[in-house]
Design brief:
Blueprint: H1 2-28, H2 31-65, H3 80-96, H4 103-113, H5 125-135, H6 143-160, H7 165-184, H8 187-198, H9 204-224, H10 244-272, H11 278-295, H12 304-311, H13 331-354, H14 362-384, H15 390-406, H16 409-420, H17 426-443
Helix pairs in contact: 2-5, 2-6, 2-7, 2-9, 3-5, 3-11, 4-6, 5-6, 6-7, 7-8, 7-9, 8-9, 8-16, 10-13, 10-14, 10-15, 10-17, 11-13, 12-14, 13-14, 14-15, 15-16, 15-17, 16-17
């Protein structure tokens, strides 16, 4: 009892001190100045959070896969993804007491509902849950959970200093954008995520604050990772204007594939939501995910390692640990494996994100686009005798599929170039992403991130912070 009483006294003292600091700040530091101080702080914290998540995923994956050889069939894949789904679902339900799936969609919902007070435990719980999901092989990304964690960091810092609702929204946007910037080491991509996906307020103050947060977060993450990008790419063949017609066809292909990807994700989500018992849903999703990853081991985890190998022209790496390893030098086998992978990737991402995992939607589109671009170039070379550089088209496909599925072309273009640290293919990447986005946008009105509040008027007056319920 004495310990609990002492903790309560300390908490009360901290609240009084923070209240005094907030009052002094309001008297001496204008809001427009103070927002940049908080943006700087959020940038550091979101960068640290991103690095922590990336390190945890690498640690878990390394421990589980340390003795797995490329020439050995990965029977372990029949169990690991299922265990990861069950662990992350158990953690979410019984320890964190929060549903942390679909982090970006939850941020959008909170912004549209004008509910800016996010629970304190969500600053770290998504990081723990995501490390379980992806470390054990969940075929999705880390950006959703880390964005949710970054938004919680921004919200709690705003609550700590009692900022106004308008600035609270900016801080949530800064936190989410900074987290995306940190996890991908892509400051421009992170800022465009807040503007294109979250659709936060666009003003001089908010844009500059978000850019500051994104730059600092990326610098922190970049320095802690040893100044390395996640997807290594060295362009060996320069872009030639003579292949622009094929680049246009690539954009059309990415747009059509985006239709399939989006439809399959929605179908998996609806089917899994039919199960009222969460254990049944988790087990079915985990079993399905394990089976698909056993068939195509390159789908294990986020897929950055596979993308790096493909971009280095090591195409046979997609057969590592698989039933098809003995045929890794056969072009027809590689084409069939690639076809199966891009068809199954959407299913695996849906099973991971909607089946109990704590993960994101962006990285799977990058992986699917990389393999789709590789398939396009290899098939063209095999069937029509062209001499397309497979790595270049794989990079174009990354931006094309992300732009078509997520409906954020600018973010897709800059995130892809920043992720690989290469601007040599900016023109064909822009053509591919723009065409893919336009095809999907013209033919499909349904947005990727859906919320029951999608029709809410985002221009409604912001409520007073004291009238908001704690989220």
């Amino acid at each position: 009892m004495r310990v609990r009483q002492r903790i309560q006294e300390i908490n009360q003292t901290v609240r009084i001190v923070l209240s005094d600091i907030s009052q002094w700040r309001r008297d001496h530091i204008p809001d427009n100045t103070f927002i940049f101080i908080l943006a700087f702080l959020i940038g550091i914290l979101s960068g640290l959070g991103s690095s922590c998540l990336r390190s945890l995923i690498s640690l878990v994956t390394g421990l589980l896969m340390y003795d797995q050889k490329a020439s050995h069939i990965g029977y372990i894949f029949l169990i690991l993804p299922l265990v990861g789904i069950l662990l992350s679902a158990t953690y979410s339900k019984y320890i964190a007491h929060d549903d942390m799936s679909h982090g970006t969609q939850k941020i959008i919902t909170l912004i549209r509902m004008r509910k800016f007070n996010i629970k304190r435990n969500l600053t770290y719980s998504p990081i723990i849950g995501c490390s379980m999901t992806l470390g054990f092989g969940g075929s999705a990304g880390a950006e959703g959970p880390i964005a949710y964690s970054g938004a919680a960091i921004g919200s709690n810092i705003g609550q700590m200093f009692h900022v106004s609702p308008r600035f609270m929204m900016m801080l949530i946007g800064c936190g989410a954008a900074g987290a995306i910037s940190g996890i991908y080491k892509a400051p421009i991509g992170g800022m465009l995520y807040a503007l294109e996906v979250l659709k936060v307020e666009m003003s001089t103050v908010s844009v500059v604050a978000m850019m500051m947060t994104c730059l600092i977060s990326a610098m922190v993450s970049y320095s802690l990772s040893g100044f390395n990008v996640d997807v290594q790419f060295t362009q060996t063949h320069p872009f030639e204007s003579s292949i622009i017609p094929l680049v246009i066809l690539m954009g059309v292909f990415c747009g059509l594939y985006s239709f399939y990807y989006f439809g399959m994700m929605r179908y998996i989500d609806k089917k899994l939501n039919l199960f009222k018992n969460h254990w049944v849903k988790n087990i079915i999703a985990g079993l399905g995910l394990s089976a698909f990853i056993f068939l195509f081991p390159a789908l294990y985890g986020e897929g950055f390692e596979s993308m790096t190998k493909v971009l280095a022209d090591n195409v046979s790496s997609i057969t590592y640990c698989s039933l098809y390893y003995d045929y890794h030098g056969d072009t027809l086998t590689l084409l069939l494996v690639l076809t199966g992978m891009i068809l199954v990737k959407a299913v695996c991402a849906g099973l991971t994100n909607s089946g109990g995992g704590v993960s994101g939607d962006f990285t799977p589109t990058l992986f699917a686009g990389c393999m789709a671009g590789l398939l396009f170039a290899m098939f063209s070379n095999f069937a029509f005798g062209t001499s397309l550089d497979a790595a270049n088209f794989a990079l174009m496909g990354m931006a094309g599929v992300m732009a078509g599925v997520i409906r954020a072309p600018l973010m897709a273009i800059f995130l892809t170039t920043e992720l690989t640290g290469n601007l040599g293919l900016l023109v064909p990447i822009t053509i591919t992403a723009s065409l893919s986005f336009c095809i999907v946008k013209l033919c499909m009105k349904e947005p990727f991130f859906q919320t029951q509040y999608a029709s809410a008027n985002v221009d409604d007056p912001l409520p007073d912070m004291k009238n908001q319920s704690s989220e």
